[in-house]
Amino acid sequence: MFIPEYPTLSPRHFISIKHEAYNALPYPLSHQNKLFFYLARNGIYHLFKKKKTSDWDTVLVPDYHHGNEIRAIIAAGWKVRFYHIGWDLTFSLNEIEELIDDHVKGILVIHYLGWPQKGINQLKQICNRKGIWLLEDCALAFLAESSSQPVGTVGDYAIFCLYKTLPVPNGAVLASNKAQSLPENGSFDLPGKLSTLSRSFQLGMDWVRLKSGFHLNSMNRVKQNIGSLLTRLKLTRVGVGDSGFDVNAANLSMSDFAQKILMNLDYVQIRSKRRKNFQILHQFLNEIISTPFTTLGQGTCPLFYPILVKDKMEFIHKMHKKGIMAVPFWNHGHAFAQKNESEPCRFFRRHLAELPLHQDLDAKHLEYIASCVKEEAYLLIKEMPKKYYGN
Ligand SMILES: Cc1ncc(COP(=O)(O)O)c(C=O)c1O
To answer: Which residues, judged by CB distance below 6 Å to any ligand atom, belong to the binding site of ligand 1?
Structure first.
């Protein structure tokens, strides 16, 4: 079996859906004040460039982060100050308030893996009181909701990464709530066709591999050979899902092709399938694994199924060998954060791995994932550290 980490691109995604009759586009796609980017880091970079007022401008960011969002902020000329994340992956309002001084102009909050941050409304109140703006980083939380409102609508700005949740070759959205202004739309470039084509081809091949039920290593080789031929011919592509920030690619917007695919998706079905798949996997694994997110709140739209493992790289390697593209989530943060990371942050970087649960997976895939995890039970951490206080 082959189970990719992200949703795949299939022929049905080329058939348009009548959204008026079917269902409306969700936030932020339905939102007026928004910009499309190739990657979320591009939107973050342009937002911070636009908001910069002095060389002392500082933003509070979580110690538990990907790293690309921090690189984009620093590239835009901002200073970052880190706040800590607790055992339940939430922030402390008290700590954040203590970190605010005259240089702090903004706060970035990450909604991890599709679980909305609970204290977001109180944090916005602090921001309002102190005259600071709030950016909700929803790169991992598209289609999640908090108090029946879409995640991302409390802050002044929200950034979303679309290619993680949807079958699109690239795409991110920067939304501005509360009539705040955005960077100028006219100054962005469409990506080269080859970048979009090669990633779409890969997503299409993933669909064939998923549906055929075979691991098909030969397809991997075809993909690699085509990739190295294009590189030798100096036909450069801009990738997605990598680590780093290239300021020369920061002006790229989402491709027209990816925007067309957005019109052909059933977002209600995607959200409910992800939630259902979490519950199925949870039923299979609940007794033998531990996870920072044991419950699926009403608003959650899970990106992956997070589990704690003793040796993350060994676990990932074992899963990949079985055709399950598990993800070694965030092994290292930005170098600036590393010395001062909290205990939970260090723990999650070492031990948190992610299993696929996206909308293309059915019960047979989930059953297979669960059986493979059970085969490697000796690698699982059965209990969260004692300091864990639940979510
Ligand atoms: C929390 C978070 N924010 C921002 C980003 C940047 O996303 P993108 O890969 O679309 O630039 C990522 C992933 O890289 C992320 O995990």
So the answer is: 39-41, 66, 68-69, 110, 137, 139-140, 161, 172
